[in-house]
Amino acid sequence: METPYPSANYYGPVKTPYRDLLPSYKPLRPVNRFYGPLQKLFRLLRTTLYSMADISKQVSEGQKKWRQGVNVTSINDVNDYISFKILEYRYFKLINNDLWEQYQEDFADFMKAIFKACNPTTIRKLRTHLRN
What we know:
- The chain is built from five helices and two strands.
- The chain has helices at about 35-65, 75-90, 95-105, 110-115, 120-130; strands spanning about 10, 10-15.
- Strands 1-2 form a two-stranded antiparallel ribbon.
- Helix 1 packs across helix 2 and helix 2 (about 75-90) runs parallel beside helix 5.
- It is elongated and about 55 Å long.
- The mean pLDDT is about 80.
């Protein structure tokens, strides 16, 4: 049986599904050089670098603020001081004997009652950092 179209089979002319799409093809979003895992990595690095600069600034400001020590009669100041010291220890990566010696210098004026009056979460963070 012959068909009226030379390039047709019994069911009609042969059509390729891609013929109509190719002339009007446009990317759905702009092409990004870093896609997927690399994009996530660069976003993480950018955040980390920003965070490191921010932490460095916080340490510098804290050292200026707490240079003369802390007023142990103000519990809010003591909590802020302890939080700053944890940040400072982490920033300078103090470990083992260096950490212990620095802790003894920083908290020489503190009594047991002062630690008991402080925020328990802050004290727990300090204790955990000293143990690790």
